[in-house]
TrEMBL record:
PANTHER family: F-BOX PROTEIN-LIKE (PTHR31639), OS08G0461800 PROTEIN (PTHR31639:SF56). PROSITE patterns: FBOX. It holds the Pfam family F-box. Residues 1-12 have a biased composition (Basic residues). Residues 1-29 are annotated as: Disordered. It comes from Oryza rufipogon (Brownbeard rice). This is F-box domain-containing protein. SUPFAM superfamilies: F-box domain (SSF81383), RNI-like (SSF52047). Residues 23-57 form the F-box domain.
Length: 279
């Protein structure tokens, strides 16, 4: 009859046939597997999974391994970082902010305090270039990040190391670009390097020491393989024997007149070394 609704035909199961099982869904997986999946995502994508359903609203908060990373041009990122860190219940192993605006400098200190207690391993904090080189001074909590394996700092100022500074025993990569130290800060830099016995890569680019008077200090890194020093002033640094060195680039615009260049060149006189020395 025209206009009458069509009746849906029921599918009859043959005798002994098993009923059709529902299709598996993502939520049917064990929670530890789901957390492992979320933990492999960058932080922004991980947080966005909270919009999938009620079950996913807080899943990212307990998913270990999420990589915390922000770049330049991300409006409001500095404010969001602290909120996300406060909600995240797992250790933060990888944290990078590639361009911290001046308004977010104070928040960076709050992040450091949290990260020091979360066992951060890879840490990169790059600040926007300050006017007249008035850099933001980092919180002393930077010296409490003992689990660090990689540390990259840019356009900031490091405070003097505290008397109880015990070093970075796991650090393998240290990169400092346009980082300022307080008067006699060469002692802090010396301590950071010498207290990292596993250090393999060291980059000091446009590092500055305040005060105008410097003490002699020594780079001690028995496992160092790659060395880059690009400085405007000499800062009276010396190098001990580097038995593992493979590549080195040294450029100093205003070197010390008292430097022993024979001793400096001797540090690189080994078959494994392939680099250049520019002074």
């Amino acid at each position: 009859m025209e206009g009458s609704p069509r009746r849906r035909k029921l599918r009859r199961l043959s005798p002994g046939a098993a009923p059709q099982q529902p299709k598996p869904s993502l939520n049917s997986l064990p929670s530890e597997i789901l957390e492992n999946i979320v933990g492999r995502l960058p932080v922004r994508q991980a947080v966005r999974t909270s919009a999938l359903s009620r079950d996913w609203r807080r899943r990212w908060e307990s998913s270990p391994g999420i990589r915390f990373g922000w770049g330049s041009g991300e409006a409001g990122a500095a404010a969001a970082v602290g909120q996300i860190l406060a909600r995240y219940a797992c250790p933060v192993r990888h944290f990078r902010h590639g361009w911290i605006e001046s308004g977010g400098s104070a928040r960076a200190d709050e992040w450091l305090v949290v990260l020091a207690g979360r066992g951060v391993e890879h840490l990169a904090l790059i600040f926007s270039e300050a006017d007249n080189f008035l850099f933001h001074t980092l919180h002393a909590a930077i010296f409490s990040c003992r689990e660090l394996t990689k540390l990259e700092l840019g356009s900031c100022r490091l405070p003097a190391a505290p008397s109880d500074f015990s070093g970075f025993p796991n650090l393998t990569v240290l990169t400092l670009t346009m980082v300022a130290f307080p008067p006699h800060g060469e002692r802090t830099l010396e301590a950071m390097i010498s207290s990292a016995p596993l250090l393999q890569s060291l980059e000091l680019k446009n590092v500055s020491m305040e005060g105008g008077e410097w003490d002699e200090w020594v780079i001690r890194a028995p496992n160092l393989k790659d060395l880059i020093i690009q400085l405007e002033f000499d800062f009276l640094w010396e190098i001990e024997q580097l038995p593992s060195i493979q590549t080195a680039t040294i450029s100093v615009d205003n070197e010390s007149t008292d430097r022993d260049f024979v001793q400096l060149l001797t540090c690189f006189a080994r078959p494994s070394y392939t680099g250049k020395l520019v002074c």
